Amino acid sequence: MTTSSHTRPEGTASPEEEAQRFLALVAHELLSPVTVLKGWMAVLARDEIPAQRQAQARMSMLSATDKIERLVRDLLDVSRASVGELSIDQRPVDLRAVVVDVVAAVDDDRVRLLDGPAVPVMADPQRLDQLVTNLVHNGLRHGDGGPVVIAASTSAGVARLTVANGGPPIAADLATRLFEPFARGSESSGSGLGLAVCRAVVEGHGGSIALSRVADQTVVEVALPARSDPTGPAPG
């Protein structure tokens, strides 16, 4: 008696089921900003719209198009990474300088970077910016409203970046798949792509990313190869 090689473990989805789930999630994420755009376009089609109302419409429509653009870019990055085609343009970079720029751009008093020396790496500065930005926004979105603490350091040839935030522990079943596309809790906001993009960026640099629980903090730790020649130029 032979056993089919196509037998799946109990509770796992078939490729067809995964594809249907993927399409449903993408459609859901696109529907919200498209609905916003359609609604405001209908408002603007009316005559004699007050200037303040027009300004509100423009801001809401810009926000909706930004959301669509981020979703499409994240989908492209995850897709390219899955076939090993994510573009990575490595050069000497100071990881700490990238974090400083992201913290300034986020402009939220809850985000704190611990003091420390430069952290030289060979990396794509735009991809590092994308990585740090996603991690910071993830900490702000899913934390308890308290500080999001960032640390960057180098030890034994490894550059480490940690982003920690308070809040309840992540459910064990979710924690094991948190860096997969569209993985998120039932009450979570966001597309569920941010951490998948983070993993793609980190692995594209030959690094690793992991989640842990330290005391009452959820910590995401990134490990990247440190630059062997820290005295070289490090454009941000």
Structure description:
- By secondary structure, the protein is an alpha+beta fold.
- The protein is 45% helix and 19% strand.
- It is built from six helices and seven strands.
- The chain has a five-stranded mixed sheet. A two-stranded antiparallel sheet has the order 1-3.
- The radius of gyration is 21 Å and the shape is globular.
- The termini are far apart.
- Mean pLDDT is 84; it is low at 1-9.
Main features:
236 residues, alpha+beta, 7 strands, 45% helix, 19% strand, disordered N terminus
Question: Can you count the beta strands?
Answer: 7
Provide a count of the helices.
6
In what order do the strands lie side by side in the largest sheet? 2-4-5-7-6
Model regions low in confidence, pLDDT < 50 over at least 5 residues: 1-9
